[in-house]
Amino acid sequence: MSSEKFINNKSALITLIAACVVVLISLGVRQTFGLFFMDFKNDLDISITQSGLAIGIQMLMWGLTGPIFGAVADKYGGHKAICLAFVFYILGIYFLYAGPNTGIFFQIDLGLLVGIGLGGTAISIPMSIVGKHFPLSNRTIAMSIVTAVGSLGYFISPLYTSYSLIKNGWVDTLFVFTIFLFIGLLVAFFVRSPSASQSIEKPNDQSTFDALKEAFKNKSYILLTSGFFVCGFHITLVGTHVPKYVIDRGLESWTAAAILSLIGLFNIFGSLLSGYLSTKISKKIILSSIYALRGVSIILFIFLPASNINAFIFGASFGFLWLSTVPATSGIVAHIFGTKYLGVLYGIVFLSHQVGSFFGAFLGGLFYDLYGSYDYAWYLAIALSIFAAIIHLPIKEEAVLRLKTE
């Protein structure tokens, strides 16, 4: 890593801090939905399959709107895209507890509206804006900081939610989430794209269409996009269905909350280490190793006897690998194509992630209702780990000719 200053100007510092807060709130709220499933079932008559479908729709909308918010951020500024997304997020949570929230409205609230909100507030857009403020030598570390701070939300929110559901009930818990989302909306005004004078790249006249055309002709971009599908499948299967899975295996509900919190806690370290290693060694090797280790973690979790210790080991190990894929993945996109259209190009990669998330959420619930077990979902997750570990190896981490000749 080079010896140049990590923070080159005040704008970069403010953007980094604000993006961290935005992702902290957005991901923190998102991580808790699996803990509400039994309350939704008892009070709203929502089945596990319906809940899984809502999360699946949410993941799809998150992915489908990501490139749109990315294009808005690239053209008009990150703060405008993120603030608009927060409006949808707030409306989704509000209607979820205040109504209408049954039947098709449950899918609209938790699936459609929250999903659109996540498309602009969660990891991809804030992180892409941060990436525009930092040079190649420091970019993955800056991105990993955003990811790591967002993981604090993963750590804190399940603990608070587990307590609040018992103490206050699910309606009041979601009301508190709405307040935090309003705070995120205010902070989002400070996640601003760099001005022309602050930009770290030479100006170019490439259009959005040209950038997309260039990307889809690049084999490495296609492989990266395909591999990120697996990341989405993994984390949504785990985040959505592990709470019920561990209870079915005879463990208590607090163990489920502890697993989600451990995922958040250890993801902090995994994300930071991934960002640091991405400045030292090949990013594709990092990604291949992460996916292979995920498969090992899942195998041990489902085949070892059910116990709190084994559950906690899974939470810690899988948490270490949770979002550690993000800095390396986004770093490869920025390295190959530059940062001008990082929002929309990473948004496309993230769309693949969210398609995987849809299948992770929906198939987990479907397999459970069909067979009374999550076994087939876990077997599929293991097979996808092997696929992802292999598919990243042919990626070429080099800038396109356009950047080389500038």
TrEMBL record:
Transmembrane segments: 12-33, 53-74, 81-98, 104-129, 141-161, 173-191, 221-242, 254-273, 285-306, 312-337, 344-364, 376-395
Keywords attached to this entry: Membrane, Transmembrane, Transmembrane helix
Residue ranges annotated for the Major facilitator superfamily (MFS) profile domain, each copy included: 12-400
Gene3D superfamilies named in the record: MFS general substrate transporter like domains
Domain of life of the organism encoding this protein: Bacteria
Protein name per its UniProtKB record: MFS transporter
Coiled coil: none
Entry GO MF terms: transmembrane transporter activity
